Amino acid sequence: MDTRLAKFAIGQVVKHRIFPFRGVIFDVDPVFANTEEWWLSIPEAVRPRKDQPFYHLLAENEQSSYVAYVSEQNLLPDESDQPVEHPQAALIFNAFTPGRYQLRPRITH
Fold first, then answer.
1. Disulfide engineering: 78 pairs with which of 15, 52, 64, 88, CB 3.0-4.6 Å?
2. Confidence at 106, pLDDT banded by 50, 70, 90
């Protein structure tokens, strides 16, 4: 399978192309890396290709915050310049500048 570079970066705020939610990217898979069951649960008419980057988001909509797994073809840059209010954002990211979060330094030993 031919892979390509991800269009979006960790810490970038994005929105879904179809559904009304936005989020901050905290991880990227170069190609689909979820279960076949999850992929087949998406209606065929809107099911994304597997041969593209997939993004892990701390996502939010008007009702809740959650973690989302979204194909690159379904994401757009969020132009609002507003931070994401997901409760886990502060655990992963430091400062917010319009459109982007900075990752916290990782402490390992």
1. 15
2. confident
